[in-house]
Structure formats: C-alpha cells, structure tokens
From TrEMBL:
Keywords: DNA replication, DNA-binding, Primosome. It holds the Pfam family SSB_1. InterPro entries: NA-bd_OB-fold, Primosome_PriB/ssb, Prisomal_replication_PriB. Belongs to the PriB family. Involved in the restart of stalled replication forks, which reloads the replicative helicase on sites other than the origin of replication; the PriA-PriB pathway is the major replication restart pathway. During primosome assembly it facilitates complex formation between PriA and DnaT on DNA; stabilizes PriA on DNA. Stimulates the DNA unwinding activity of PriA helicase. This is Replication restart protein PriB. Homodimer. Interacts with PriA and DnaT. Component of the replication restart primosome. Primosome assembly occurs via a 'hand-off' mechanism. PriA binds to replication forks, subsequently PriB then DnaT bind; DnaT then displaces ssDNA to generate the helicase loading substrate. It comes from Alishewanella tabrizica. It comes from the Bacteria.
Length: 101
C-alpha cells in the first residue's frame, strides 16, 4: 500500500550534504510549512518544521541549487529516525522534489 505525503514549505536551514559509506549522496533539508486549514468548519493555522532526507544521485542533483528561503514541494514517505541520544522524530524521505521559488 502506497501512502505518499506531500509537504510544501520554505527551506529554513542550510542544506546538509553528505555521502554514505556505500557512496550514496544524501541531502538533508529542514522545511517550515505554514498554512490556514479548515477543521470542523473553523479556520486553523497549521505549522510544522520537518526534516527531509533526499537520497540518491537524481534527488541530490535536484537539491544542488537549493538554499535558505527557497520554497519547495516534496513528496515521499514518513519514517522514524532515532538520534544518538535516543530521541525519536519523524522524517520525510523524499521521492520527488519540486522547487517553487
């Protein structure tokens, strides 16, 4: 079952680029999303900051020109990451990225 999440927002931290021991390029972005949503007939402000991982040559090349403040739309899947200190967080693993500005 494919469950795809789509998130748009502004890059709010400088992208971090690295390479795995297997030679796979990775780019990590932090996106900030703000919007007004309808819930139970009322307007509600939605706000989230989420880390986005782009893995592989194609996505890494697409992210080469992304900088702080760029607006993007990312689609992919959520996964749980655990830091070295044991703290867990949700991370969006990108399958597609589109620069909006």
């Amino acid at each position: 079952m494919d469950n795809i999440l789509v998130l748009s927002g502004a890059v709010c931290r400088h992208p971090e680029r690295s390479e795995s021991p297997a030679g796979i390029p990775h780019t990590v972005l932090t996106l900030e999303h703000r919007s007004m949503q309808q819930e139970a007939g009322l307007n509600r402000q939605a706000y989230v900051r989420m880390q986005v991982v782009l893995s592989g040559t194609v996505l890494h090349q697409q992210a080469q020109h992304l900088t702080l403040g760029n607006n993007v739309r990312v689609s992919g899947f959520l996964n749980r990451h655990q830091s070295g200190s044991g703290q867990a967080k949700l991370v969006l693993h990108a399958q597609q990225i589109e620069q909006l500005s």
